Amino acid sequence: MRVELALSLAGHDKGHYYVVVGEEAEAVYVADGELKLLARPKRKNRRHIQPIRKLPADVAELLQNQMDDVVIKRAIKLYKKHVEK
């Protein structure tokens, strides 16, 4: 599975960034390192997220390392800084 970021398009968390940590046929499991931890990821319908395919190099490198809640939180924060520029 390729690690990727995703933007929530529907639900009470609309506009929230997540890291996809698991997949099923019609759903994905996402975590943000704060409210939704890696130990208990949120299940979301695939239609309700927008995958982010083109990640900045530093964010992609960070997500390739050992995955834990701190790394997920740091990667999302770093991606948001790139988006704001």
From TrEMBL:
<dbReference type="InterPro" id="IPR008991">
    <property type="entry name" value="Translation_prot_SH3-like_sf"/>
</dbReference>
<keyword id="KW-0689">Ribosomal protein</keyword>
<protein>
    <submittedName>
        <fullName>Uncharacterized protein</fullName>
    </submittedName>
</protein>
<dbReference type="GO" id="GO:1990904">
    <property type="term" value="C:ribonucleoprotein complex"/>
</dbReference>
<dbReference type="GO" id="GO:0005840">
    <property type="term" value="C:ribosome"/>
</dbReference>
<keyword id="KW-0687">Ribonucleoprotein</keyword>
<dbReference type="InterPro" id="IPR041985">
    <property type="entry name" value="Ribosomal_eL14_KOW"/>
</dbReference>
